[in-house]
Amino acid sequence: MSTRAAIAIGAHPDDIEFYMAGTLLMLKKAGYETHYLAIANGNCGSAEYSSAMLKSIRASETRAAAKILGAQVHPSLTNDLEILYNVELLSGLTAVIREVKPQIVLTHSPQDYMEDHMTASRLAVTAAFARGMPNFKCVPARPATEHEVTVYHAMPHGLCDPLRRRIIPGAFVNTTSVQKVKREALAAHKSQQRWLDVSQKINSFLLAMETMCLDLGKLSRRFKCAEGWRRHSHLGFCAPEADPLRDALGKNYLINAAYERDLERGG
Fold this sequence. Notes:
With about 270 residues, the chain is α/β, with parallel strands linked by helices. The protein is about 40% helix and about 15% strand. It has an 8-stranded mixed beta sheet, sandwiched between helices.
C-alpha cells in the first residue's frame, strides 16, 4: 500500500498550529506522513523588525514548530498580504500537492476574519483540484496525479464569519491527547506574541488557542479539547462517501449529525 499523506496549508506561520495542528498530530499517530506549508512568510507581523529580518526569524520558528509536530515543512511562497488568487501561487501550491500526493488536505475556512485566510483556502482547494490536469503546468514542474484527495476546512477565528455569523463544525477531532504538543508548537512562534498583543489585542495567542479548543470540545459534547472541520464537496476530488479523517481517527472523530441533517435540508 502506498504511503498515506496529509498536508496542512495555512496562510501564515503559526496558523497551522492555531487551527489545524491537533488533527495533524492525530493523523501522524494514525500512521500518516504529515506535511506543513504556510503560504506567506510572515514578513509583516512585527513593528520591531525589518521585513528581511522577520522573514528569517519566522522561517526559523516555522522549522522549529514543524519539527515539534513531526511534519515535513515546505517553503513559503509569498509575503504577508500578498496571498492573492493568481496563477503564480496556484502553480506553486499545485506543485506541492502533486509532489506530496496527499489523501487529506487541511486548510482554512472559506469564511474567516481576514482575507489572507480566505484566499489561502481558495488556493488550496484549486491546487488540489488541479492535481490531475496535465495541461496545467506548475513550477517546479511535477507530473499530474490521479490520486483521490479530500479537503477539510478548519474553523474560522472566533468561530464566526466576517459578518459575525456563527460557523458550526461538520465534525470534531479529539485533540485532548495532543494538546500539550500543539501548544508547544505554537509557542515556538515567539516573535508573534508581542505583535498579536499590540495589533489584534490577543493578549496571549496560546490562551486564545486553548480557549478555542476547549469551546469546540464543549460544542462536541464528547471531547475536552477539539478542532472542528467542514468537509469540502467531493466533486472533482474523491468518491462521494470519502471521509479519510473518519477512517483514520475512529473514535477520536465525531460527525455532527445536526450539521449533516441541515445539509440535506439545504440549511
